[in-house]
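User: Hey, quick favor. My workstation is busy. Could you predict this chain's structure for me?
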Amino acid sequence: MFSTMEPNLLARRLPRSEHDPDLEQQQAATNTNLAMHPVTGAFRDASLESEVAAQIFRLAFPAHMLLWLSLTLAVGVWIVLVADPELRVIWGVVLLCAAVGLVGRVLLHRLYDSARAQKTASSTWVLLLALPCLAATVFDGVRASRPLACVQKQKDYLGAIVYLTTVLINGSLGMGFARKVTLAGLILANQLVTIALCGEAALAPMLCEIAVVLLGAFTAHMAELYWRHSYTDKVMERRRVAEAERRREEEKQQVKRRASVWRASLAAGRGGHRPDRSAHRGGWRRAVRPAAHHQGSPRVGG
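Assistant: No problem, here it is.
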């Protein structure tokens, strides 16, 4: 009786192969959830995408503080010392939006729910960016009819700094690729309108600003893609460790259950007589020994 039961017990506790269909299916499901678009960096799993966006938003807080403070300080100094009187209105709108964004960024960082803070920041950012961009485009379109307006545009050195800071913030808020590209296109609309109205008179500074916007947007997106790949590697490593721990725990539980079955079988087979412990000690050890230590058919002690 024991000689037939012991091989069955040992066979059932053989470790699962790496090519086990269940394990392969589970691994395939994990890889599918972590699948990422090669260009946009978006994850197929919506919950994972939301988690990653919240992490990006929270980790970028020091950089946002530096960029927002630089933007606010630069615009404020420009308005006071350099800007023409008629340009102070539009730069005042930019300064107001930058100040509101700075205060709002600090308040949102203090929220416990990072996902909610990121979504709120993204929606608010759209309004704060769209308002000055549309105002600047309309304002430049109106001023372009004046002879000196296009000449004064060549002296507007602050534009490149403002646009670079803006696109870096725009690319590090954890927003989707389509929204980031749309907002970057809205930033470029000002330069394109100026080129169309002023022609060669403002071509060089506007091309410089366009290059700054494209370079800043590309740099921010590449940095986010790199972070997303690193985050994916960390998630996969954590899942592999958790799966290994789970399998080890399952094997321990299986050993305990089969040990209980072995004791019950000994009690049932002795028929009320005192068992010969030396006769069954060898079989008991082979029953709970890892299968990797067994070579050939197991033997029963006694």
